[in-house]
Structures are given as C-alpha cells and as structure tokens.
Design brief:
Blueprint (H helix, E strand, L loop, with lengths): L7 H10 L4 H4 L6 H6 L6 H11 L34 H23 L17 H12 L3 H5 L4 H14 L3 E5 L1 E2 L2 E5 L7 E4 L6 E5 L4 H13 L1
Helix pairs in contact: 8-9
C-alpha cells in the first residue's frame, strides 16, 4: 500500500482553510490527528478523499509549504463592510467559477463582435453619488411605476435583474457552490461581488441572503 509523503502542516492548513475541526472529520479519517502530528501517513487514496472533503486541489497537499492564497478580486460586499482575513474555499471557488464563465462570454462577445459597454468605468470616486445614481437609473431603464407595481421583494429582484441583463450585465445568483447543495454560501462571509469588464461585466449575488439584501447587493455591485 503506497503512502503519501505529505508535510503534516499541509493537512492542518487544508483542514483549517475549510473551517473544519479534527472532530468534524474524524468519522471519515480516523487517523487524521496522527497524520497532522507526523506520526502516520495517509495512502494516496486517502489523500484524494481528504482533498475532496476539505475542497482543496489535491496538488496543494504535495507542496513543501502551504500556499498563500489571495482573493483574485479587490473588493466584495460583506455584512457591515467587515474585512475577511482568510477567504473560504466556497468563496474562492465561486469567484473562480464566475471568472471562468465571464471568460466564456467574453470570448463569445468577441466572436460576434459585440460592442463594449460605454457605462463600464464611466464613473469615478470624485463623482457625486446622486449623479452616478441618475446615470445608473438611465442605463438600467428603471421605471418607478414598474417598481411600485412589484408586490414582493422577490418580484422586484427579478425585475431588477432583468433590467441589468438587458443593459448587458451578467447577473448570477446562487446559494451554493456549483450546484453542490452541501456547500452552502455564507452571507456572513460575503453577500456578492462584481467582475468588471467592458464587454462582459458580471455581478454575483449570494442567494442565501434575504431578497431585500440581494436587491441592495445588486445595486451596490452595479455601482462598482
């Protein structure tokens, strides 16, 4: 039986990265504490199973030291604007998935020669908020009467997403990672983010958040 010569600190790093304790995983990996202490080594098959359980690329576990992971976006919306010191695997995987989908659409946009969207990057921090809000309302074609006719937050959110989509913004809403219902997104970590691009701007909204919060997230990220 082939054992994997993995640095014990990589196993601890991967477990903590996923927000798991030893107790959370000991029912699946009875010797995990021994692996992390360097007193035993897992098999190759166990390493793969462990990587799947903590949502880490298996190749990371064979590095000499834990990698320094940086979130590939400068900012995202959190509860009360709190900073996140260490992004979770769920947040990282969701950002990567959105970047991939944005790339697909950008390739499509180039292939059919879609024009660049003039509103992307048109505002600056020096602009007055009221002016920017008016410009956004004009681009989105927001109708006050149509909004007032919405009976629920869910209906209003659908209308808002439809306006953004018509303006050329890709809007994604999900409460889980890549259709995996066991990987629910935590609104306490992040509520949404934007990936700016002149041909394929994208906004992601955490679907586990309340509908009213999702409305605000969409407006907030569209401003970005």
């Amino acid at each position: 039986m082939t054992r994997a010569a993995i640095q014990p600190e990589l196993l601890t790093w991967a477990r903590e990265r996923a927000g798991k304790s030893l107790e959370d995983l000991d029912h699946r990996f009875a010797k995990l504490a021994l692996w992390e202490a360097g007193e035993a080594q897992p098999t190759i098959k166990q390493v793969q199973a462990f990587a799947d359980a903590v949502h880490v690329p298996v190749g990371y576990l064979f590095l000499p030291v834990p990698p320094e992971e940086r979130l590939p976006i400068p900012d995202f919306r959190t509860v009360d604007g709190r900073s996140i010191n260490r992004p979770s695997p769920n947040l990282l995987d969701m950002v990567y998935a959105c970047q991939e989908r944005q790339g697909w659409f950008k390739d499509y946009a180039r292939a059919i020669r879609l024009p660049e969207l003039p509103f992307v990057g048109s505002a600056s921090l020096n602009d007055r908020p009221a002016v920017v809000a008016a410009q956004m309302a004009e681009v989105l074609g927001f109708d006050l009467e149509a909004r007032a006719a919405c009976r629920t937050w869910e209906e209003a959110l659908r209308l808002f997403i439809g306006h953004a989509d018509s303006a050329g913004v890709l809007v994604m809403v999900s409460g889980v990672v890549l259709s995996n219902n066991s990987r629910k997104l935590d609104p306490e970590e992040f509520r949404g983010f934007a990936l700016s691009d002149r041909q394929a701007p994208l906004v992601f909204i955490n679907g586990t958040d309340s509908k009213s919060a999702q409305m605000f997230t969409l407006a907030h990220e569209l401003a970005h």
